Amino acid sequence: MQTTILPKNRTGAELMIKRLVLSFSLIFTLGLGLWAYKTNYASRSALLRVESINKQIDHERYQIKILNAEWEFLNRPERLRKLVEYYFDELRLIPISPQDFTSYDRINVVNDISIKTTDFENTKN
Fold first, then answer.
1. Separation between Cα atoms, residue 26 and residue 34, nearest integer Å
2. How far, in Å, are 6, 33, 90, 116, 123 from residue 112 at the CA level?
3. pLDDT (tens digit per residue) in 12-57
């Protein structure tokens, strides 16, 4: 003999609570789905922006390499020497050597002298 379990007679309050729980569960599930959808597309958008920025960085690095190569080419000593010789009459450029450089202390002494000279000229007037 087989026994069958018959559903209990439910009251109106129990059915209302069940429907309310199911409704909230459905709304909550739909809300989570919407949140996941938005998060998915926001992360895809962020990845596209990152890729775009990385491409720009690579392009800028490439441009910097080109500019460094041009700078090295333009500042070759033999080229600069030829330019100095070519434009000597117009610019009166002379070649420089390590002896032409001075120390920082020497510059301060010259600066003090010029300040004292300027002060003297101001008091003279």
1. 12
2. 110, 76, 33, 6, 17
3. 788 899 999 999 999 999 999 999 999 999 999 999 999 999 999 9
How does DSSP assign 43-97, residue by residue? HHHHHHHHHHHHHHHHHHHHHHHHHHHHHHHHT-HHHHHHHHHHTHHHH------
Calpha distance 32→40 (Å, rounded): 12
Length of the chain as a residue count: 125
Is 84 in contact with 95 (CB distance < 8 Å)? Answer: yes
Please give the mean pLDDT across all residues of the chain. 83
Which residue shows structure tokens 């500042």?
75
**SS3 at position 125:** coil
Mean pLDDT of 95-110: 72
